[in-house]
Structures are given as C-alpha cells and as structure tokens.
Amino acid sequence: MLPNDLLLSVSQLNVCVGDRPLLTDVSFDLRKGQMLCIIGESGAGKSTLIKALQGMMPATCARFVYSPARIDIGGPMPAQLGLPQARWVMQDPLAALNPRQTLGRSIAESLYQERLSKADLRRRVLHALTDVELPETFYDRKPAQVSLGQAQRACLARALIAQPQLIFFDEPLSALDALVQKKIALRMDLLRRASDTTFIAVTHDLGFAAAYADQILVLKDGSVSAYQSRKAFFDAPESGYAQELVRAAQSLGVLAEVAA
Predict the structure, then answer these.
(1) What is the pLDDT of residues 63-100, one digit of tens each?
(2) In a domain, 117, yes or no
(3) Which residues span the domain enclosing 235?
(4) Does residue 61 fall inside a structural domain?
(5) Close Cβ partners of 48 (under 8 Å, ≥ 6 residues apart)
(6) What is the pTM of this model?
(7) Residue 76 belongs to a domain
(8) What is the CATH number for 224?
(9) Is residue 130 a part of any domain in this protein?
C-alpha cells in the first residue's frame, strides 16, 4: 500500500532509442513537498529521465504512480503523457520566454484556462512577480530588457502561478553567476516550503543539493549509482562514483554543513 503523502513513485523505468539503452531500471519515490535532486555527469541520463517522466520520450516502467492525477500504470508509458498539475523551468530562461511578449503576458499564459477577468489576471501576475522578488514594473518589460537572473525569476513565477503539484527544473541556475544563483536558489526553497510544492531538479551543483534536497538520485551511464536521503548521501555515499563526487565537492569547498 502506498503512503498517503506519496506524490510520485517510479519503479524500474527504462528508456531505449533503437537498441541503445539510455536509462536502465531507474526507481525512486517522492513525497509531497519534497525536493529530489538528480545528479550526474553530462550524458548520464538526467534530462532524459525528466523527459521520460512527462511522456516526451518512449519508456517502459514496472509501475508509475502520480497521485495528483490518479495515474497508476505499468508497461509502456503513454506518448505525451503530460503530467497534469506539473510545470517545467528550463535551463535557458531566454529560450523559454517569447521575446515578443512582455513578462506579464508570458506569466499569465499559465492562467488562461481559468478565464479570469483582465483585472484579476493582472492582479495574480503582479502577486507572482512579488513572490519572486521582481518589481511590478517588470509586468510590461520584455525578456531583452531584463537580466538573465530576472528572466529566470519570471520563469519561476510562470511555473508557480498555476499552483502546480510538481515542478521540474533542468539546470535552472547553471547560466547564472554565483550571487544570482544563491538568491534564486533560496527563493526557490522558500516558495517550495510555503506552497508545499514538490520539486525535481536536475543539477551538477552538489552545493545546491546539500543545501536544499530532501533526496538525491545519482545517475551514472543511465543507471542509478546512488539513491539516498541528503544526509545519508553526504555522510556515507553508497557507491564509489558517489563517493568521488562528494570528495570532489569537499575539495572544492562547495559543501556547507549538511543538516539532518
């Protein structure tokens, strides 16, 4: 029997392109309000995994459970599954935003199905801008008129405004400088806790994972190399590859003290 607070359960997920396996027997469980960080070198299968979870790549799974939509399936994943009540924040915010639209209009797109009045729509968008610490004047700005970090905040606002159950992040901080990374990472965590939204974040940054993850999933050549709680992972990584990652992060001084 599955726990009442389980949001997503994945058992033995496999992805193949032709005869080439990209992911092999990937399994994890994620409870509501948690953050899962997916870590691994380039080509390990991180982005492939989040695409497969949304039906954007052909995949099979022994069991796939997504509680907000009461999805409980096994075998081939339906093409274009499209998880309801889920959003995606991409690595490059300028590629994710329409250059011809204002930030306000881009953020409002997530609410069009609600058929709100123009006044209510604007009020919701302005509130979303405030949530990500952007001034109301940004409502009328276009992507070319803001910094990369401000554009990424707008993408976060667009994801959160629809009040999703789950948000996927694909390297959301990698294009930003260190100070902006820190500010946006902290804001992401505060908003997650305030809204009880579940996050799945692909990242190379073990410092980010050490600060904010509840669980860590390490991929190596398309297979799970480690799957542990944050504290367990940094205290006693369960594979040689995971140990190498932690030692490298420690030598670079990117790990703060890991809380229980």
Answers:
(1) 999 999 898 999 988 766 678 889 999 888 888 999 99
(2) no
(3) 1-82+198-260
(4) yes
(5) 15, 22, 23, 57, 222
(6) 0.91
(7) yes
(8) 3.40.50.300
(9) no
